[in-house]
Amino acid sequence: MTPGEFAYRLSLARQAQSDCNILGCIVIEFTVDLSRQVLVAGVTNGGAREWRIQGNVHLSPSMKLTRVRNSPTGPEYAPVQL
Question: Which of 2, 50, 69, 80 could form a Cys-Cys staple with 65, CB 3.0–4.6 A?
Answer without folding.
Answer: 80
